[in-house]
Records
---
Amino acid sequence: MEELKGKLKEEIIEILNLEGMSPEDIGNDQTLFGPELGLDSIDALELIVLLEKNYGLKLKSAEQGKEVFKSIDSMAQFIEANK
Amino acid sequence: MSVYIKSSAVISSFNSFGSDVELNESADTSFIQANEPPYSDYIPRNLIRRMSRVVKMSIACSSKIKNDSGISDYGAILVGTGLGCVVDSEKFLIQVSEDETSVLSPTPFIQSTHNTMAGQIALLETQHCENMTYSNRGHSFENALMDGMMYIKEGRDNVLVGGSDELSPIVKELHQKLCLSKPSAFLKKVGEGAGFFLLSGVAEKGKTRIEDLLTFEVNGKDDFKNKLEKFILKHDLHSGLDLVLLGAVKGKIDPFSQILLSLLSDSIGVGTFKEVSGEFHTASAVGLALADKLLQGEGFDHDIWVNRPEKTRPKKVLIYNNYLGHNHSLYLLSV
């Protein structure tokens, strides 16, 4: 699980072009769409594409997206539970 | 009415963002990479990640001009680009091809809008004046500049004009293939960069004056020679010209540039700006920035000289450029 979380952080930094950030800068339980990372709706679309392309997983609804994209922990749990 | 360059900024293998900047010499000898400034000094950090390099170069240049000149209200914002945000356009098209449009990520699509630079500067600087990005191959920058000069002649002031292009792996490959189909004198390293200028109609002592700008296509060498002779006669360039800055490289002066040199006095200084900029659609913006630097007496330490000018600070400079033998342009500048 920790390996998956590290991989997710690296993927997010690369895909969202979070310049100057390293995986250590993102806490496992940190809110992804909070003020610290400052992600927005375009980033949400990028994360949906990431899940589908890299993990073969599709979200069923916008509500589910809100839960899954809360943090690195919730994304990793969703991937583990559905792989 | 005359047009003056009030302030300029350049990003090429050299840049105007620090003092004593070394040339950025790539290990790969087939291209010249821009020596980029630290963008976070000029662009809000949260916006940088949504900008392609060509937009970052343009915004950094406009921001430097704003800081240097103290002018924050423009009469118009006009930018020229040959290929625009080509890196993101390539990413987007590769995704379309590989994924067959099933799962496309939105960022390369959004950032692949290729004529976006002038609009992005206007948005960032909250400018409500006209903004336009021209994309006309090797005359993209010249058409933006010509529009800017017309705005000045209509009475606008502080018109921001620039030219900007970025390199991508596919552009490098295509440029090399394109060069192979040309006579060897047109072979140059491909380059990238940006040159931006704040134009004004108000004369200021010591500022570079754009006396004339001519763009043209030619039907053979005789036609080219005729056009040059008319320009030389119009401005009496047989005397008083200190320097010709060619869009060429030292070892391989192209046939058109050679015709120009044959029509001018041997004592005139000759420099080659593509030695340091490389070839790209808006390389003449870097040439104009370099000429402005020389006319302002800033000097240039790097060896671009075929014939070093006698005066350390030239008073009258002619720039001649073509893009791979097409899209010819002549700029006459004085101080």
Note: The radius of gyration of chain B is 19 Å.
---
Amino acid sequence: MIRLLPSAPEAPVSAPSGAEFVVETIGLTKSYGGKTVLDRLDLRLPRGGIHAIVGANGAGKSTLFRILLGFLGASGGTARLLGRDSRCLTADDRRRVGFVNEEHSLPDWMKVGTVTAMQRRLYPAWNQPVFETVIGSYNVDPGQKVGQLSRGERAGFNLALALAQGPELLILDEPTLGLDVVAKRAFMESLMYSQATEACTIVYCSHQMEEIERLADNLIILERGRLRNMSPPEDFCARVRHFVADVPFKGPDPASVPGLLQVQRIDGLHHYLVLDQGDGFADFLRAAGARNIIDQPVGLDEAVNAILGQHHAAPR
Amino acid sequence: MLDLLKAEWLRFRALAATVALLHLGVIAFYGRMVDLLQQPPMIVQAVAAAYALAGLLLGLYQMGSYRRPNRWLNLLHRPLPPARIALALAGAGALLLTVALVLPMLIMLAGQEWMSARVVDVRHWLLPLAALLSAMAGYLAGAYAMVGVRRYAPLVLILPAMLPFSNAVGIGAIAIQVLVVAWLLYLLVTAFRPDPGRIPERPLPLILTALPVQLALYLVLLTAGDILFQLGWIMSGTHPLNSVPPRGGLVEASRAEGPDLVVAGLAASRSPEAPLWREQVSISDAFRIQPGFDQLPVRGELTNSVPIEFEDEEHQVHWTFSHDSMRFEGRGTIDGAPRGSLGLGESGARFQRPPVSLGEGVMVDAGRLVRFDPEIGRIVRRLALPAGETIAAAPVPVGDAVAILSDKALYLYDAQVLEEGDAAFPARWRAPLPGPIGDLERADIVELLDAHLVSFAYGRGNPDGAAAPFQTILRVDSQGRAIAVGARPLKSDFPLLSRFRDRWLSPAMNMVRHAMLNLFAPRTPLTAAASAPTPPSIWALALALCLGSLTAAWWWTRRVALPGRERVGWTLAAGAIGLPALISLWLFHPRRQAE
């Protein structure tokens, strides 16, 4: 069961192996100069499942990962990964955490087989069958140099390496960014059908809603460094409703519309996307003069875009 | 760790091999023209600088490529302690530099040792190590500049930059290089952590990081300030070196014609003969003698601080001194074939120390002057000074005589001494030096009818804070009695603030700089100088700067909210070191930590 939790007392620094949460931040704040990127973020991700983090550019996703992995200092608050203070991660902690980012930074000058052998020696829990299963989905030859791989092949190779390490936690930071449709699909299928994912918790950051929809057990929405939502994707979709109403003239003042995320007028009809509004919203529209009201289902993409677009600066 | 080292080796091996081949080609080309192992210090230092530059570029490029956030994350997010990752990368750097720089040198040395008659001493086999250490110092400084905190990390380049100025020689020089490399490696390892923007927290890494930064700031302030001051002075048209020098000053004395200088030195003479001498001097020739070399070669030094080879043109043999055999080793100038050894005297005895070759077969062996006699094919003693004295310049002809300057006295011999030796032609006279040899600017000899007047002008190094300049005139009669007949103080020409700039800016850093430069340095009698006490006004200025720095540091550490112990430490450092520590504080803590 995934839920938003209230703040808890600080967990002990040295209790990493049996930690309840793979990721835990309390009041986490990061500012660059005068700009706040993470704003007192309280986040707890329990073990197991795939946690998808979405947010507009600059919402603080990558900053959050960098702080969690100890590569960036926080301006305030605490961050823990697998129960360990992120500033004090040990080599063993890093063995337990896989990380794949959008650059798929791998040594271009080395052969695929050499890189694989190197990783195999580095990670005692290396799972060769998992590696072979994932890499088998790609046309990658061990004698090829990494620099000769296509972007999709690099992504697949990187994923195979990360999964074969046998991580308890796998962080994927926009791994499909820049991939074509075929490569994206191959990547997603590799991830979904790998046995390795059953044994680890995955934190997946992406802008691709179809990926989130397919993968995520838990949807985390960050907005301007704050936690806006944490729930299963379907629960989140259920919170957002799309009403189409035939309202005369301009319709009600948007400021007076409860839970309004987005309003558009298309072909004379008003489209309202609202958050946490029950059937009573239809009564509100009727009171505003609406004659016909249709309550449409909302897809994840539409719901997320609406919530992220709510406070987004737009041309006036 | 080994895998990471191999990965880096694979990455740069083609580059290393290419550089190695080019390097070997250059060495082979120049090796055909000159004896590479007998080059003067300037050439050797230029080559060492090129090696350090090669290392610096490798360090900058290698670490620069990892310094992008995602690459840095991928490099360090692995089940290895960051220190081991740093050591693996640095190990790869050392391996690459060994292949590119050391291997060609070893090939050259081996070729010279076994395929030519050129001298290859044990000390020369240390040159590849010294080259590797120079390159590693550059490499590690470049690596640290990339990995460390950008605001101050590049300043640690001061450590390799100071190496050419170290006064250590031989194994001592190697030890200094090892220390610098170890220091830089320590800095690199401590900077190698996931968040490289954090400054060191623990006292030892903090001190070892701050010290070179402060030293660099000190030298930058010192040099930049001096350049600005000198330029401004030159532009004003009153700089003593760039206009008519002030009367009675050191610059005027150093530039004056010999007779004019002696006449000026006699101006205040109370000797009744002074007017007559002045007349005689003004129509006579003066012979100028200056210290010729500061350093004496030390056995085992890596490079030749002074030339130690000469040519026997008559027999077409090139003689090169070997530190191993302590004799000269001959090589035919036409065929390059070995021509045997050449020691001292009839027995061919070993030299006690490496000699200084003055050309034309004349050599200084500490207090002895020896000469190669091509007719008998031997090196023969020509003159010997009293025990404990060291010859400080080449013989200077003075009419039918020759002057020999030692660290204690000036001697006049008959010119025949160079042919027949001092047994037949002992010293005509000995005039003791009125000051330390390290301060002597020049000596001038004027021959009178019945005696010689000798002028000693002191003040060498005075523009940089050495002792006050003065001139002394001695009259040395035919019996060898030396009597002071004239003296005058010379003006310093340069203001106190300029002369003592290295002291008032930061007395502590001045001491650190000198301690570093003189670590493991051999003692040499030729640099002995009088101590120049720091004037009270300079001490007062230094104290004021330190107190001002202390106050500013206290205020700044409070503003940036440093924790108590750190705050006290920085404040005390600013009080003890002054401006360099204050500026380094600002570089280390530019703003409130929480931001």
Note: The two ends of chain A are 42 Å apart (CA to CA).
